[in-house]
Amino acid sequence: MRFLETGLAGAWLIEPEPAEDERGLFARTYCERELAGRGIRARFVQCSTSFNRRANTLRGMHYQAEPAAEEKIVRCTRGAIHDVIADLRAGSPTRLKWFAAELTADNRRALYVPRGFAHGFKTLADASEIFYQISEFYDPALARGVRWNDPALGIRWPGGEPILSERDRGYPDIAA
User: What is the pLDDT of residues 18-67, one digit of tens each?
Assistant: First the structure.
């Protein structure tokens, strides 16, 4: 696996290094030892999937509060997404900075989302599916979010008007 800098402290874009032949390919997508070499020591206790029928579906920006703040590895297994993370950690040198990457079924990239970051994505293709490895069990009482178009973040989303849930539309701005 190759780890690419995102410019956000502790966050990584992960590319598999496939071994290819006439049959296809084989690539490692998770290795505890390689992650630990980058300071990632999360134990992933839950996996989830998100299926999105239409392009321009936007989900985010989500996070889970302490004491169950999450680390995630996010991968697009079907279709394509514009995946975004934003650093919400108090005292972080990259607080309120964001990073985006195109994750597709074809490029097989993944994004490591550290604890204290908000995460969201916008689908670039119909029938996009996303796979999550998550370090904490979901606790609805600790589920939080910030507005996807909060000016304090200034995230640049591609495409037209997003398809949003009422919950995502109603998240507050960050108290900067």
Answer: 999 999 999 999 999 999 999 999 899 999 999 999 999 999 999 999 99
Phi-psi region of 10 (alpha: psi -120 to 50; beta: other; left: phi over 0): left
The residue written with tokens 């029938």 in the block is 127
Cα 68 to the chain's mean position, in Å? 17
Residue 50: C-alpha distances to residues 21, 41, 42, 43 (Å): 31, 25, 21, 21
What is the CATH superfamily name and number for domain 2-18+27-169?
A: Jelly Rolls (2.60.120.10)
Which residue is it, tokens 């108290």? 175
Q: Which residues participate in catalysis according to the annotation?
A: 62, 132
pLDDT in tens, 68-98: 999 999 999 999 999 999 999 999 999 999 9
